[in-house]
């Protein structure tokens, strides 16, 4: 009886599992180009149903890849090429719709129907059905029983025979009470359908409210719409993510052309309602991804019969989204369609396992060698030009036009290219980033496009935030951007765009500089380049450059006009266009220097008086994702010095780490300074050089998810001055005696520290002015900062005089604000005296301070006298000056997530019965279900008993009977039995294996 029961269990288990077994991951490719000759209705139905099943199949692993055009085949080839994210994977071809349905229709629980025609139905039902179907693990279809595709999925006996679980056709009339809700109609059937979605799927938590898909609705069935522009192929991502799908006008002042009888402003109010309800579900704490762009050729613009131009509609949409903690990931016409983003998104774990880093920025000596800095340390007169290569704030343009076309231009690698894809698009097209970073030349650099990790208007993140009135959202935005900037080693925001939302200001720079520490490009609103917290800011020059207009005359610069920095926005140009521009300059004899973004901003920061120190690139580590509680784990970390300072143990450079509960805000106190790791005694790490650290990580005692941070620190006094002791003579200092004042300034060997000091000998000081002050590296400050200032001094000649220190304040443009502090000291001739004072910024417009030394008499008037000055120091009183973190210089610390558990073998991310640790040990994918079920690795846990009752390195029915008996008697868990059964049933039994050693 027991044996019969065991057999029955095995039969039931076999019936429960499907044919998804695989020893290695397989990509199921279906080429849909055969349908190009089908009728429009059939193509529409085929594409919508195909991407629905694709999204369902790709939810927990990348399985289905659809080919709509040759560009899709290109990316499939790149996935499986050597070094690709799917290298070595199998490809199985699906030949027709019957095979596709037989293989994947079992994943769908049924069908959600929507109105069949834009002429007779409600156009919004196609997108509402998409969201509802995604939430219910279904596909969406037009309610057209005569359609051949409908028949294949619903009615044909040889088809899928999926049940109809929801029918939205004919349900929304624009009057009375909205179907299945208690809400009164909006007066628009189109908007009523969206309110139904809000009430039944958004408010109930059935949809992912951090993902919005904004694509063409059933309007795409109209003959005037190009079939590609229906954007049906975009929807596989919506099905995978259970996204909120809609298309509405952002304008409150006109009725939309796709619903001309609705009450004025109904689209706009419904738009706001959806965004607001999504934020409520998100607890107002997450940024929302909005995939889409106004389909300006067909809707809501002057081109489609409205009163607003296309660009104005774009700006209005972004203004609206930004107020609701939402960023646009555009899909603009020209190329508003994209395929297989559910597949690429399912590869995100593979992407995250790789480390993507930029090329090293230039060193000081490299800029000297290029002729950009002269032997005296001055920037050489030239027109320094950076071409921002956009517009890649959208996934389709980045995948197909940048990575799939421009990046293959033979001129790439010959000219400096500053590519500007917004890194948030990696959620949907990580394959493009992987390809570009794997194949980058030493002249390829990457910067963020508009406006960071997504298209927002920065001023809409705080303040009034019309029309939402939400609280300040800048911290949410910062965390969002930091995540994506870390992924691809970004530290420059190339274009800060705020169109339609007023002027940008230094307040907006403050939002960005924490993750854009190497530069920020303003769209406008800056008269001259400035430093803000040692970050260089510069306004865009115009006009924009296109492939057919990129020429010298468009740049508007003049040769031989001093030191100039300019950056231009170029749209979809090729490297060859840039090469042609350079050659035109050479032919004309112009002194234009075309440089990459990092050369541009490093040189600009230096020219403005900032410093390029305290920059680090996090190159790699061997830290496992899963660690045991209370464990002390030795790990290796590799970093690169991207700054101009030389790291050494003697100068106090070290690595520190912090482990905090997942999502908890990091503070300086979280770093364990006692566990800091120093460089070797003789190690000196210059610009571009590598440092390797061996770190002992102490794991928490309690299970949970934790965030691990690394930062570099300079464990010494955080002096904000360069050359503070004059060891480089007068570098970064200025001397003058003018308008009747006379004197000499020289370097003396009579020093308090090091080998040198300054001798300031003023022979006539009652007239005019004299000073030793800072020439370069003015100190960047903010209102409310307080500083400690100190220096060593002694009199070089007798006299009733004092040495005066003056601290002066300047605005962002370098204008003196008539705010200062004067401090007089009276050292003697016998020995150096340390002089100290405190200074707090007085003017809210202050962005820089300078310090100067003068000789005064006891009444405070300038006079003749002679003093030695050495060891000048300015430190921030608000900082712990014993330890200066690189993150305080806007260099992002490294962050990774750890899963800390009592037993590392208990973690099985993909639920395939094999722990992550075992899979990783055998080169398998811990995030891909069943990739290691068959073969030695899967059977290692299946061999429990042989004929003699002990493991025998042979998996057969003895093992199943043994574990089934234990389960039935209560001595083994059901999960153990089902795991073994799945492994045995999905594979060829019996099979000899390696004996399990543990």
Automatic annotation (TrEMBL):
Residues 384-512 form the GxGYxYP putative glycoside hydrolase C-terminal domain. Pfam families: GxGYxYP_C (PF14323). SUPFAM superfamilies: Galactose-binding domain-like. This is GxGYxYP putative glycoside hydrolase C-terminal domain-containing protein.
């Amino acid at each position: 009886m027991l044996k019969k029961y065991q057999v029955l269990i095995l039969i039931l288990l076999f019936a429960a599992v499907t044919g998804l077994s695989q020893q290695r991951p397989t990509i199921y490719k279906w080429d849909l180009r055969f349908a190009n000759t089908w009728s429009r209705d059939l193509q529409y139905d085929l594409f919508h149903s195909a991407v629905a099943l694709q999204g369902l199949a790709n939810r927990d692993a990348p399985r289905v890849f659809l080919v709509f055009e040759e560009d899709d085949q290109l990316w499939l080839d790149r996935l499986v090429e050597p070094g690709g994210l799917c290298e070595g994977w199998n490809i199985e071809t699906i030949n027709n719709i019957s095979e596709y349905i037989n293989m994947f229709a079992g994943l769908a629980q049924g069908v959600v129907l929507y109105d069949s025609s834009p002429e007779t139905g409600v156009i919004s039902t196609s997108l509402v059905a998409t969201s509802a179907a995604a939430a219910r693990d279904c596909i969406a279809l037009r309610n057209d029983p005569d359609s051949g595709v409908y028949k294949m999925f619903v009615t044909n006996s040889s088809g899928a025979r999926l049940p109809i679980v929801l029918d939205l056709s004919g349900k929304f009339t624009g009057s009375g009470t909205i179907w299945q809700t208690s809400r009164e109609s909006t007066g628009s059937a189109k908007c009523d359908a969206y309110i139904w979605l809000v009430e039944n799927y958004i408010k109930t938590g059935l949809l992912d409210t951090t993902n919005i898909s904004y694509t063409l609705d059933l309007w795409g069935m109209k003959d005037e719409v190009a079939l590609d522009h229906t954007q049906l192929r975009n929807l596989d991502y919506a099905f995978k993510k259970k996204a909120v799908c809609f298309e509405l006008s952002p304008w409150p002042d006109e009725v939309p052309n796709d619903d001309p009888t609705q009450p004025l402003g109904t689209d706009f109010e419904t738009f706001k309602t959806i965004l607001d309800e999504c934020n409520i579900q998100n607890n107002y704490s997450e940024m929302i991804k909005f995939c889409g762009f106004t389909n300006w050729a067909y809707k809501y613009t002057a081109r489609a019969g409205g009163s607003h131009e296309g660009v104005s509609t774009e700006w209005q949409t972004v203004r609206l989204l930004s107020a609701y903690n939402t960023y646009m990931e555009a899909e603009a016409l020209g190329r508003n369609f994209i395929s297989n983003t559910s597949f690429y998104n399912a590869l995100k774990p593979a992407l995250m396992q790789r480390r993507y880093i930029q090329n090293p920025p230039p060193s000081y000596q490299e800029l000297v060698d290029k002729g950009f800095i002269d032997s005296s340390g001055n920037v050489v007169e030239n027109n320094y030009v950076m071409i921002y290569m956009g517009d890649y704030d959208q996934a389709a343009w980045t995948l197909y036009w940048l990575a799939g076309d421009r990046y293959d231009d033979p001129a790439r690698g010959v000219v400096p290219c500053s590519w500007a894809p917004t890194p948030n698009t990696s959620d949907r097209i990580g394959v493009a980033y992987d390809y570009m970073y794997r194949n980058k030349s030493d002249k390829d650099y990457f910067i963020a496009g508009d406006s960071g990790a997504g298209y927002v208007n920065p001023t809409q993140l705080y303040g009034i935030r019309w029309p939402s009135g939400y609280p300040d959202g800048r911290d949410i935005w910062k965390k969002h951007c930091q995540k994506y900037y870390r992924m691809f080693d970004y530290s420059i925001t190339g274009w800060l765009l705020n169109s339609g939302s007023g002027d940008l200001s230094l307040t907006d720079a403050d939002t960005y500089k924490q993750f854009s520490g190497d530069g920020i490009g303003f769209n406008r609103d800056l008269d001259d380049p400035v430093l803000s917290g040692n970050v260089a800011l510069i306004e865009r020059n115009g006009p924009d450059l296109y492939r057919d207009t990129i020429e010298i005359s468009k740049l508007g610069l003049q040769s031989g006009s001093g030191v100039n920095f300019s950056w231009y926005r170029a749209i979809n140009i090729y490297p060859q266009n840039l090469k042609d521009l350079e050659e035109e300059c050479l032919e004309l004899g112009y002194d234009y220097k075309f440089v990459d973004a990092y050369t541009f901003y490093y040189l600009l920061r230096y020219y403005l008086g900032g410093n390029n120190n305290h920059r680090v690139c996090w190159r790699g580590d061997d830290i496992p994702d899963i660690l045991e509680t209370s464990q002390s784990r030795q790990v290796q970390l590799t970093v690169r010095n991207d700054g101009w300072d030389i790291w050494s143990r003697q100068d106090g450079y070290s690595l520190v780490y912090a482990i905090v509960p997942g999502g908890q805000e990091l503070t300086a106190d979280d770093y364990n300074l006692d566990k800091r790791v120093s460089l070797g005694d003789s190690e000196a790490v210059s610009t571009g050089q590598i440092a390797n650290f061996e770190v002992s990580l102490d794991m928490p005692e309690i299970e949970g998810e934790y965030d691990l941070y690394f930062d570099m620190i300079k464990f010494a006094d955080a002096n904000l001055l360069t050359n503070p002791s004059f060891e480089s003579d007068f570098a970064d200092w200025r001397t003058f005696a003018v308008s009747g004042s006379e004197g000499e300034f020289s370097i003396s060997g009579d020093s308090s520290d090091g080998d040198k000091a300054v001798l300031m000998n003023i022979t006539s000081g009652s007239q005019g002015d004299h000073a030793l002050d800072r020439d370069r590296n003015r100190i960047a400050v903010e209102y409310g900062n307080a500083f400690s200032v100190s220096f060593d001094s002694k009199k070089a000649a007798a006299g009733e005089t004092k040495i005066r220190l003056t601290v002066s304040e300047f605005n962002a443009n370098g204008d003196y604000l008539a705010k200062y502090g004067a401090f007089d000291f009276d050292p003697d001739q016998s020995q150096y005296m340390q002089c100290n004072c405190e200074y707090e910024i007085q003017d809210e417009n202050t962005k820089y301070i300078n310090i100067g030394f003068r000789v005064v008499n006891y009444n405070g008037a300038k006079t003749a006298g002679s003093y030695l000055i050495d060891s000048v120091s300015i430190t921030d009183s608000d900082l712990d000056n014993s330890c200066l973190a690189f993150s305080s210089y806007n260099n992002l610390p490294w962050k990774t997530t750890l899963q800390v558990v009592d037993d590392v073998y208990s973690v099985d991310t993909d639920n395939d019965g094999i722990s992550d640790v075992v899979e990783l040990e055998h080169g398998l994918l811990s995030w891909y279900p069943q990739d290691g079920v068959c073969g030695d690795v899967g059977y290692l846990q299946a061999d429990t008993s042989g004929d003699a009752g002990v493991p025998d390195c042979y998996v057969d029915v003895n093992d199943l009977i043994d574990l089934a008996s234990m389960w039935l008697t209560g001595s083994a868990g059901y999960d153990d039995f089902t795991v073994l059964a799945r492994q045995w049933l999905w594979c060829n039994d019996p099979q000899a294996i390696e004996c399990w050693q543990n």
